[in-house]
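User: Good morning. I'm curious how nicotinamide-adenine-dinucleotide would be positioned relative to this chain. Could you predict the structure with it bound?
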Amino acid sequence: MKFAIVSKGDDRSNKIQATMKQYLTDFDLDYDEKNPDLVISVGGDGTFLEAFHNYVHCLESTSFIGVHTGHLGFYADWVPDEVEKLIIEIAKTPFQVVEYPLLEVIIRGHSGGREDRFLALNEATIKTPEGSVVFDVDIKGAHFETFRGDGLCISTPSGSTAYNKALGGGIIHPSLEAIQLTEMASINNRVFRTIGSPLILPKHHTCLLKPIVDRSFLITIDHFTQSYTNVKSIQCRVAKERVRFARFRPFPFWDRVRDSFVADDDDDKNK
Ligand code: NAD
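Assistant: Good morning! Here's the predicted structure, ligand included:
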């Protein structure tokens, strides 16, 4: 099996990267940054997002796993103390694979009619540095509302615990193939009206955002932001591609949600 390791770049992560690389190579696994079967991210969720985007072109043949060297990570769920155990598990292969849905974003019309396509593991956000964004929101080909406000966040189920959650969106189990639209400070008064609630769209229900007022947009895909002008439309839907997580032990989604956001039962009792 071929593997690659993406490190956050700090001393601790680099040390773990070097140890894993050495031991896994000793177990006759091949270090191959070009075509890895398994990508190990060492750092935090940000490092995991970076690893995902580094290998987004070969999702069909690549699985991901994360070791976190900072505070508890949502994607990076192995701790440094468990690295030896993880190395043995990886060396034993084959491993189980769990697949989660992704978000597809297509930005059309900018730079003389160009079209950009992205996949997001967490979410896309659309904001502007020039006041409010104003766009028509179409869902499944029909006009739904005209949105005015700070922006919109469109997230995947596994990203629903990230920015989406901070915006009051619901947490969606990644076995559901859906995307979620959450508003950022929409303007709602007697003149302007939006739904005001997060919307959950199933697979094949495309959401199309069509700017009414020509603004420059700041469009974020997971951890990177790009500025766009002359955007004609932004199309969002569940992607046909999926992300594959290598699983060496069960770690149910709701356990991860509880461990990340709800105090541990024993911690509570000790307070
Ligand atoms: P960062 O360093 O600012 O990390 C933001 C936090 O989000 C970290 O604590 C990280 O562990 C957590 N996180 C990332 N993905 C998560 C997930 N799926 N579930 C739960 N928590 C998650 O930024 P970064 O490391 O570059 O990560 C980019 C991500 O930050 C974006 O995808 C976005 O979801 C998140 N973000 C959150 C807010 C917010 O909550 N208000 C604002 C901006 C960005």
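The longest strand covers residues 233-247. The chain has a mean pLDDT of 94.
Let me know if you'd like a different ligand tried.
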